[in-house]
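[audit] Reproducing an earlier prediction to check determinism. Same input, same settings, fresh worker. If the tokens differ from the archived copy the diff job will pick it up downstream; this log only records the rerun itself.
[audit] input (586 residues):
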Amino acid sequence: MLPQEFIYQLKQANPIEQVMGSYVQLIRAGSLLKCQCPFHSEKTPSCVVYADTQDQHFYCFGCHAGGDVISFIRQIEGIGYMDAIRMLAERAGIAVPAQGNHHNAENQRMRLLELNRAAANYYYKQLTGSDKRGLVYLKERALRPDIIKKYGLGFAGDQWDGLLIAMRQLGFTEEELLAANLCSRSAKNGNLYDRFKNRVMFPIIDLRGNVIAFGGRTIEKGGEPKYLNSSDTPVFKKGRNLFSMNFAKKSQSKRLILAEGYMDVIAVHQAGFENVVASLGTAITPDQCRLMRQYADEVVISYDSDAAGQNATVKAINLLRAVGLRPRILHMHDAKDPDEYIKKFGAPYFRKLLEDADDAMTYTLNHCRDGIDPSSEDGTITALHKAVDVLAGIENELDRNVYLSRVAKDYDIDPELLKSQVNRECNKRRAGAKKQHWQAKITAPRMRDPVNPEASQHLAEAKAEEQILYYLFQQPDALESVLARIKPEEFVTAFHRKVFEQLAKMLPQGYDFSLSLFSGEDFSPDEIGRITGIIAQNEILGSISPRGVEDCIRKLKQKPLQDVDVASLSDAEASAFFAQLRQNKR
């Protein structure tokens, strides 16, 4: 089996819409792409390409083919798994690693996670050591002790080898310290030295509670860089993680607050807003937006009010919209960032600021005039064409009409004329995409499921298993709690049991859910298509609650009557069996 990190890089270098687009004609349908399925004959497109999701995939509602870009190449070219890997690697100019290195890579990953946790503990203890400068800085920033402890904040002093010595004593090697980006090697003498010095330390924690990296804020006046962040390592990719997402995901709100830096996040969190995150030293990325989409419907952008912050806001709006999130913009007056605003005016006023945040549509429509002379007819026409494009992108008709009326008033144009232009653009873009999506599902040929033949004999149980699996696909960090209540051997159908066993094997290693977890020769293209079908069909129905999962587990634990040969039971066993039936009815 190949390392999961290589599979991720391979898929990133081969976007599914580009690869599939070289074989079939893709049509934009709202936020999705559609095509006539290349694996069966059809007149109405029923193959949907989910290109704007964190784990890109396709699924045909007609013949049930599906999977990621690797699965597509396997099926379209009629080749094996490794041949598909080599074909995509050659396309992207990437070398395929030797498979024998996989176990070494996994061992390294686990060691680096252990090292990061030990380093976080070291930095935390240093905060209250003899050098109190880090603690003084945090107190000056008005952070409470409980918040400092909750985030595991620490301090790296001015000793050049303090962490190095401490980690060596715990048995970690120089190679591991370099791989974790905790130490660097001197070009002069070849010795290792601590990467972080004279900095307040912010551990970066993933969704499962693993310490995967660090950010360090200098405490020296004029110290550069102001913030120093871990580079990418085998356990950390900054473009795929968000600071404080491990806390924000627990919020009951379907809204996330997107801040610029660590201190902004912690200040907002301390003020009572748990649903706040930040990118990690880089502009927001599509992967980070997809991660937010798993937990929220709306994102309030609270970037700094300077020019750089406003430019970052425009980029963030487009990326958030692309994955189906509703962006809103926080306008802070008399403060440059959320930390300063909360210190000046307090949490209640910040809460009101959140509620009054401008919607991103207003923000975007106002920018249609940028760089245009509004006094000229050509300028007005150009701005209006931009506004029509923006308005046509609003899915909800009521919302669209509200903004349409506002634009018509701003430009002093007949609302009906503007509406006809917008409707024409909408028809070109959408062309009844939602109706076609449902039509494809309704008219799909009813095919026998050779992948999971037992499902037809145990319809209710198979559906319960599907929903448990889908819940884990969406909430992989819930695996431990699910495994505590049901084991793979309690699944009724062999295929669902196989998928559950693979999740139980791979997720504890620190991976997020991805179709790549089922790559390799252990799962056939048809089986991967079936897994993709579980995702696609349940996405239409909506998310599954923890209570719904409990109901599914109870269903599986009630063994079906037809599975028990009563005649073969002893008197005592038969008595217990019928007593259980009576209990189930009650």
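[audit] rerun output stored. Observation attached for the diff report: The chain is about 50% helix and 10% strand.
[audit] end
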